[in-house]
Amino acid sequence: MKVLVTGGAGYIGSHACLELLRAGHEVVGFDNLSNSSEKAISRVRELSGKPLRFERLDLLDKQGLGRLMKEGFDAVMHFAGLKAVGESVEKPDLYRRNNVEGSANLLAAMKAADCRNLVFSSSCTVYGAVQKNPVTESHPRAAVNPYGETKLAVEDMCFELARVEKGWRIALLRYFNPVGADASGCIGEDPKGMPNNLMPFVMQTAVGRRDKVRVWGNDYPTPDGTGVRDYIHVTDLALGHLAALGRLDRFDGALAVNLGAGRGYSVLEVIRAASKAAGKDIPYEIRPRRPGDAAAIWADPSFAKKSIGWGATRGLDEMCADHCRWQTQNPEGFAS
Ligand SMILES: NC(=O)c1ccc[n+]([C@@H]2O[C@H](COP(=O)([O-])OP(=O)(O)OC[C@H]3O[C@@H](n4cnc5c(N)ncnc54)[C@H](O)[C@@H]3O)[C@@H](O)[C@H]2O)c1
């Protein structure tokens, strides 16, 4: 297939480009590089040994999008978007414009070019304050911050479009917590500034970029008192996109699918596994709970198996070993 990848230079997008190329697809990627480096693209080219065309383009550039889509694609994987929850609270309008308007522009350009096959990066954040684990796709949806609102809005846009217009086949993939890196250690997550997520913080601490990990709360009703989340290896996640792509022809309209491992790990379990991978103790300190954090969230991944024939295969030790390899080989990320 000829696949257009938006946000192709980003963390998950670059791993998806790599797996698409490894599977023999033709890939064109674009990104405005607001949160990524073009180096990720050159590394994907080197790793795959295949050509990968890349353009610097913004989702808000309707003309540019229209021109690119008109080249003719079998499907689009849509990763481009802003994802920092804290920033979304400070700049809700920026998030709405970039993520929601940007996605509307993409859908319009796809329609004009008669390409109606889409795989979209949604998130478990659409489940809001989780009421019951494991979380199934029928769990009620709610937004608890402006970032989450943008994911709900794009999901709704896709559901509505698929309802009113025939021919759309859309996979709304709700990711749990992507971590890890390609096993080569050549591409990986390279957050700008202070990491928002646990694993990059832990690994930056392992290589000395941070002095210690802050653990927010150890008095939750979980086995060791720290928060429990469902972590998924980014390569498993990328392969989930390929699985969805391969089954799109069986879709009729838009379908939401959880991409999670189906089990949770606590913050302390992650720190222990990361210390093992790094070969040293990673220092941490316990801080009070943060308002709004849930005790535990993990996915029910059974619908992914049924609908797209996919399940995660990589466990926590592999996630930590691969993330650690990336961070050790590239202590300053792509600027190393
Ligand atoms: N990483 C996670 O924890 C996580 C979890 C759930 C969902 N998601 C979603 O997955 C997608 C990819 O996330 P990621 O972790 O790879 O983030 P990322 O920031 O590494 O990648 C997103 C890419 O989109 C680009 N981008 C942003 N706005 C753009 C625009 N207007 N035009 C063109 N490019 C633009 C950025 O430069 C970046 O390269 C995002 O939509 C994110 O919301 C991520």
Kindly describe this structure.
The protein has 336 residues and is of the alpha/beta class. It has a domain at 2-180 and 231-260: Rossmann fold. Helices cover 39% and strands 18% of the residues. The protein has eleven helices and 14 strands. It has helices at 11-22, 39-48, 62-69, 85-90, 92-112, 146-164, 198-206, 234-247, 267-278, 302-308, 316-329; strands at 2-6, 26-31, 53-56, 75-78, 117-123, 169-175, 177-179, 213-216, 228-229, 231-233, 253-259, 265-266, 284-287, 296-297. A seven-stranded parallel sheet has the order 3-2-1-4-5-6-11, with helices on both faces. Helix 1 runs parallel beside helix 2 and helix 3 (62-69) packs parallel to helix 5. The two termini are 34 Å apart. The mean pLDDT is 96.
Short summary of the structure?
By secondary structure, this protein is of the alpha/beta class. The chain is built from 11 helices and 14 strands. The protein binds nicotinamide-adenine-dinucleotide.
